[in-house]
Design a protein that fits this description.
By secondary structure, the protein is of the alpha/beta class. The chain is 31% helix and 19% strand.
Length: 221
């Protein structure tokens, strides 16, 4: 992201209710975009294999508790296969007991794409479309790395979003299916652009709302 970006507060008044139920376009689909917890940088350890720090363990436990309090419990996880990402999930699982029972999909590509300009959102959507189940999955959590996670969250929210370590952007949309909210952008069509190859109904459904950005106390930049 450009260094001059201004990080706005979430537009909570524009978001639909966060409780599970139905909206005008269908049931609420929830997406949690989470940056991994604080990590160490040991000598002679490649970036992919860096572990989370003691501070990171505390951050992961705290953000898990905040998700419980917010009522955002993931029923599917997509994550980078980096060590610090997997350890973040392990620590969260000590707080959210059900996290160990949900379908978890680890992708090396979510590690590599995070360093590429503006590509993380589309890649997340493409991965989700391969595995998500409309009847089973209503709250999906994706765990990855900056700069990609901030860029993806900002793209979904249509405003600049800052994600410190172990911070999560909570996004929500009412839609009959995940494909309704993922496929237009995954196909390279922006929901905010002219209609083009998708009809007005699809464009209207494909609008995500930023409900909140939650951050553990003392999270690092």
């Amino acid at each position: 992201m450009p260094g001059t970006a201004v990080y706005a507060q979430p537009a909570v008044t524009a978001a639909p209710p966060s409780s599970q139920g139905e909206g005008a376009g269908g049931v609420y689909r929830k997406l949690i975009l989470l940056r991994h917890a604080d990590s160490d940088s040991p000598a002679n350890v490649r970036d992919h294999d860096r572990p989370i720090s003691d501070k990171g363990k505390q951050e992961a436990a705290e953000i898990a508790q905040k998700l419980i309090e917010a009522g955002w419990i993931p029923d599917m996880v997509l994550a980078s296969n980096a060590k610090r990402t997997k350890q973040t999930l392990d620590e969260m699982g000590n707080v959210i007991e059900s996290l160990g029972d949900v379908d978890a999909h680890l992708y090396g590509s979510l590690y590599t794409v995070a360093a590429l300009d503006g590509q993380t959102r589309q890649h997340i959507e493409e991965c989700l479309l391969e595995v998500v189940d409309d009847a089973k999955n209503y709250c999906v959590m994706c765990v990855g790395h900056n700069k990609g996670m901030e860029e993806a969250a900002s793209s979904f929210a249509k405003q600049a979003v800052k994600l410190k370590t172990a911070s999560a952007a909570l996004l929500q949309c009412a839609a009959a299916s995940w494909a309704d909210v993922l496929r237009p952008h995954a196909a390279g069509v922006s929901p905010s652009s002219s209609v083009g190859s998708i009809d007005d109904a699809d464009c209207e459904v494909a609008v995500w709302h930023l409900v909140d950005v939650i951050t553990p106390s003392g999270a690092g930049a």
